[in-house]
Design brief:
With 86 residues, this protein is mainly α. It is built from two helices and two strands; from the N terminus they run H-H-E-E. It has a two-stranded antiparallel sheet. The protein starts with a helix and ends in a 5-residue tail after the last strand.
């Protein structure tokens, strides 16, 4: 039963993602040539992995900030280094 429910959730998630993608494709003409068919080949996986590695090497580490009022303290700013979450 759980397996069936998980499959249904994944199918619904996939359909929701496709609907959002179709919406943006209809709004922005530059996106009209985007292919929505997934590519599960090893070559595609290797390209994705290379892109991820290149971005993670070159991007700047930025601090994430949470406003203190979210934690019950007004005018207090708490900084978390993004690298500490990796």
């Amino acid at each position: 039963m759980l397996c069936f429910v998980l499959k249904e959730i994944l199918v619904d998630l996939r359909e929701a993602i496709l609907q959002v993608a179709r919406h943006f494709m209809s709004v922005d003409p530059k996106l009209s040539k985007v292919v929505l068919m997934p590519d599960y080949s090893m070559e595609s996986h290797a390209r994705d992995h290379n892109n991820y590695v290149n971005v993670s090497r070159t991007r700047k580490r930025r601090a994430k900030a949470l406003l203190g009022e979210c934690l019950g303290r007004e005018n207090d700013l708490i900084l978390f280094m993004s690298s500490s979450f990796m």
